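Methods — Computational structure assignment.
A single polypeptide chain was analysed. Its primary sequence is given first, followed by the predicted tertiary structure written as C-alpha cells.
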Amino acid sequence: MVALETVRQLIEMQPHGFEFFVFVKPDRDVCVASKGCVNIIELPATTYPYWEQVALPAALNKYKIDLLHTTSNTAPVSPAVPLIITLHDIIYLEKGGVKGATWYQKLGTLYRKWNVPRVVPKASALITVSEFEKKRILQHFGPDTKVNVVYNGISDRFFQESDAAEIRRVKELYNLPDNFVFFLGNTDPKKNLPNVLKASLRILREGPENLYMVIADYDLVRLKTMLKEQNATELESRFVLPGYIKNTDLPAIYTSSALFLYPSLRESFGIPIIEAQACGAALITSNTSSMPEVAGPKALLVDPRNFNEIADNAIRVLRDQKLRLQLIADGKENAGRFSWKQTALGTLGLYRQVLSL
C-alpha cells in the first residue's frame, strides 16, 4: 500500500527533472498505469527472490537507472547503483520475534533474515516509518546507520464523512449490526487476536445487551473453538465475521462503529490507527512500539498483553459518552498530521539528497 500510494502521488506531482521506472510483477489487478514521468514496467519471475535478485538487477542495467529504491525491506544483494531501502520493521531480526506464524510467513521471514543484514550496509540511505522503528534499527545495525523517518499517510477519502446512504450500503453488504465494536486484524501473531477475543467476552457480557463484536479476517471454526475453550458458546451469535473487507468500504465501518480496537503487540506504524481517527471512530490502541507516537498524546492506550485492561477501557468508553466524543475529536485532530502527499515529498527529498540534486 505504501509504495502504491507514493507512486500515485508522484504521478500527480510529476516532479520536474525526474523520470521514474516502477518495476512490478505481472498481476491481473492493475492498480496504476504509466503517466508522464512515471513508467510502470512489468518484470515476470517465478519467485520473489528470483525477481529481486536476478530480474530486477537486469532491468536496472537495461533502463540505465541512476538510483534504486526498494520499498519492502529487502533488496538485490549486489546493487550496481545507489540504493535506498524502506525498512518497515525489523521484527524478524529481533530475538524471539513474534511466535505462531504460518509457513508462508516463516518463508518470508527466512528470506528477510538472509537478505536484510547483507543489503543494509550497502544502502546509501534507509527509510523507516516511525521514530520507534528508527531507534530499533539503530540499536541493531549501529549508530552510524543512515536512517530517515518518513511517516505513512492515509487516503483523503478517510477524511470525507460517510453519508447515511453509504453507511447503509456497507452495513447491508457485510451484514453488520447497528451497535458494534470493530476489530481489524488477522491471524498474524502481532495483531494480538487471542487477547482481543478474551477481552471481547467481557465487553459483550458487561456492555450493552444490543452490542456485537465485528472481527474482520476471522473464520467461524476458529471462533467456535475459542468460545468452547472459554466456556462462552452462548455468545457466538453476538460475533459478526464479515471476512475480507475492501479498503474502500472501511470508512463507513469505522464511522459507524461504537469503538475501534487496535491493541497490537507491535507495529512499526499502524495505518488503521489514523484511518479510524480520521473517520471519527473512538479508538483504543496499545502503549507499545510505535502506536503512542502515531495515535498521538491524547489517545487512549492500553497494555496489549492484559486482556482485562483492554476490556476495562472498552467498557468505560462505551458507558461514558463524553469520553467517547473527546476521543473522536482528539483523534480527528491527530490524523490531520498524516497524508500520502507528505510521504511522497519526504521520499522525493531523500532522492534529491542521495543524487546530490
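Note: The first helix runs from residue 2 to 13.
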